[in-house]
């Protein structure tokens, strides 16, 4: 059975996903990931990123909503599990095994397993094939998980903080691998990360979850090139059109205001200073700032 995205062009669709725990509600999350794209999932710790990912993979039971891969629910088609590669921030292999023996186990588990590709990734990531995994650093274990996920011919990678244990040089190398993965425009990646510079390098879309709610899902280019931080005095802030304010924060001598169209704001508020906004700037203003009620 082959997977098909022709109907919608989306590899993964999450609609109105809800999951409640004591003291936490993941509230009607809806996301669509087109083929050939990388979506970054950001938010503070406890925002609901991992709950969203684990619900999508069927690792926890959702309360309501629908989740489909290539138009099908995960429980309906065994082939879907072959076509999804998953990497969490912890290793799921027996650490008394070596990477070579782990490859033999995975070869028996996946019909699409490519031993040659797996060996190439071990060499590329400088992972010794015959040393026990328990001797590896956290970063080496992460690279092993990524090598394994890429070696059973997945069409979708789902990564939950997968680059967090890597040093900056290796993270950059791994991000290049991810860009290669989606280059044919048939594969996609959903990656949660608290390292915004990683997402600024590779993501096509950024979805921001805050306290269980999806605040926005935008293209990275819109966030980087249209959003801005307006810095103004108290009088200027109170005279602003409230519809222009996405989030704001009062500091000692100025107000910092997140605006969705910095060029329009420059024309409209000529006395204010308006700077470019990084993904971190946007995240911090939403999390630590306030919004107009």
Can you put this structure into words, describing what you see?
The protein is an alpha/beta fold and 293 residues long. It has two domains: 10-222, 3-Layer(aba) Sandwich (Rossmann fold), CATH 3.40.50.300; 226-288, no CATH class. The protein contains eleven helices and 13 strands. The strands form three sheets. Strands 5-6-7-3-8-9 form a six-stranded mixed β-sheet, with helices on both faces. A four-stranded antiparallel β-sheet has the order 11-12-10-13, with helices on both faces. α3 (99-109) runs antiparallel to α4 (115-124) and α4 (115-124) runs antiparallel to α5. The longest helix is centred in the middle third of the chain and has 14 residues, at 168-181. The protein is elongated. It starts with 9 loop residues before the first strand and ends in a 5-residue tail after the last helix. The model is unreliable at 1-7 (pLDDT under 50).
Summarize the structure.
The protein is an alpha/beta fold. It has 11 helices and 13 strands.
């Amino acid at each position: 059975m082959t997977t098909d995205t022709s109907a919608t062009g989306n590899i993964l669709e999450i609609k109105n996903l809800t999951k409640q725990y004591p003291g936490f509600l993941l509230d009607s999350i809806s996301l669509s990931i087109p083929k050939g794209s990388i979506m970054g999932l950001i938010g503070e710790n406890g925002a609901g990123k991992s709950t969203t990912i684990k619900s999508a993979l069927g690792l926890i039971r959702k309360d309501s909503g629908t989740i489909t891969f290539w138009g099908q629910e995960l429980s309906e088609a065994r082939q879907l599990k072959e076509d999804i590669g998953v990497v969490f921030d912890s290793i799921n292999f027996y650490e008394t095994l070596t990477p070579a023996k782990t490859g033999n186990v995975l070869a028996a588990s996946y019909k699409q397993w490519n031993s040659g590709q797996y060996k190439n990734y071990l060499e590329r990531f400088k992972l010794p094939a015959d040393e026990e995994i328990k001797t590896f650093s956290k970063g080496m274990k992460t690279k092993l998980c990524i090598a394994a996920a890429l070696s059973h011919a997945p069409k979708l990678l789902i990564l939950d903080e997968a680059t967090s244990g890597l040093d900056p040089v290796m993270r950059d190398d791994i991000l290049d691998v991810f860009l290669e993965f989606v280059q044919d425009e048939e594969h996609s990646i959903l990656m949660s990360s608290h390292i915004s510079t990683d997402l600024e390098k590779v993501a096509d879309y950024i979805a921001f979850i805050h306290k269980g709610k999806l605040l926005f899902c935008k293209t990275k280019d819109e966030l980087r090139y249209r959003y801005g931080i307006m810095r103004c005095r108290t009088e200027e802030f109170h005279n602003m059109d409230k519809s222009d304010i996405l989030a704001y924060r009062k500091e000692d001598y100025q107000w910092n205001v997140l605006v969705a169209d910095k060029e329009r704001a420059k024309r409209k508020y000529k006395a204010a200073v308006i700077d470019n906004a990084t993904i971190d700037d946007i995240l911090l203003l939403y999390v630590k700032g306030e919004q107009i009620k």
